[in-house]
Amino acid sequence: MSDRSVRSILSSDLSLHPFKLQVVHALSNWDREMRWQFCRQFVGILTENPDLPNNVLMSDEAHFHLHDTVNKQNFRYWSAANPHELHQRPTYDPKFTVWCAVWSRGVIGPYFFEDEDGKAIAVTSQHYTGMINEFLSPNLPLNNGTLWFQQDGATAHTAVISIAALHHLFPQRVTSHFGDGRWSPRSPDLTAPDFFVWSYLKSKVYSNRSTDLRALKENIRGETFRRNTSSHYAQLLNSCAPVH
Question: What is the CA radius of gyration of the chain?
Fold first, then answer.
């Protein structure tokens, strides 16, 4: 029996559907307890400060390739005939890492991790701390005494020097591993940059093909500025509650 016949029987006769296996981290009893502790702590803080959702900076980084990337696992062409489309990309696709922080009043960023010559660099603890001191700190609002800072558990984020720099800017208001609000173990990054900002920004930036990294950076800066000053964009950000 052919593979096509087997699939037809499974689908048409048995009404079965294929499901893709998803591998996730196993949770121990201690992980669950840590999550409960985070929830109880957050609810307590929220009770004392009902305006907390409007005072949380949710931060993250993302890679931007010069030639947009395609995930062939979930991308399909729907057509009556085979379009025979080819997605070509160079062997080495230039890219850089972009950081931003999102809160109810807009976006702080973008920040590009690069050296003095404009070449992309890795996000190390030293480079991350430099971003905090040289970019984040000067761009914070003047009345930042009530702002909380949230980040994920990347190694560069949780290094001793990185946490020290964040505690200096946000005393007792850092949600992170080794922070004041402990980052829950094996927790997905349910923050505004992850489930909204990056995908939205890339959909806009890559609609205008850039010829080099400098042009791509300008597209990112321009799109971020336009959306950061857009009332519609601000309303979307307001709907992104700081969940974890």
Answer: 22
Burial (CB count within 10 angstroms: exposed 0-12, middle 13-18, buried 19+), residue 174: buried
Q: Hey, what amino acid is at 173?
A: R
Helix/strand/coil percent split, the chain, to 5: 45, 15, 45
Chain-centroid distance of CA 186 in Å reads: 16
Q: Note the pLDDT of residue 160.
A: 94
Domains (range + CATH), the chain: 26-69+90-238 (3.30.420.10)
pLDDT of amino acid 74:
57
Report the distance separating Cα 72 and Cα 146, nearest Å. 44
| 62: nearest Cα among 183, 198, 182 | 198
**Sheet strands (E) in the chain:** 56-65, 95-103, 106-113, 148-150, 174-175
Q: Which amino acid is at 220?
A: I
Residue 32 has pLDDT above 90, yes or no: no
* Residue 96 scores a pLDDT above 50: yes
pLDDT in tens, 114-158: 888 888 889 999 999 999 999 999 998 876 778 889 888 889 999
Angle (deg, nearest 10), helices 198-205 and 213-228: 120
pLDDT band at residue 88 under the 50/70/90 scheme: low
The secondary structure of residue 52, as a DSSP letter, is: G
The first and second tokens of residue 154, run together, are 């990347």
Give the integer Cα–Cα distance in Å for 58 and 152.
Answer: 9
Specify whether the CB–CB gap between 39 and 191 falls below 8 A: no
Greatest C-alpha distance within the chain: 72
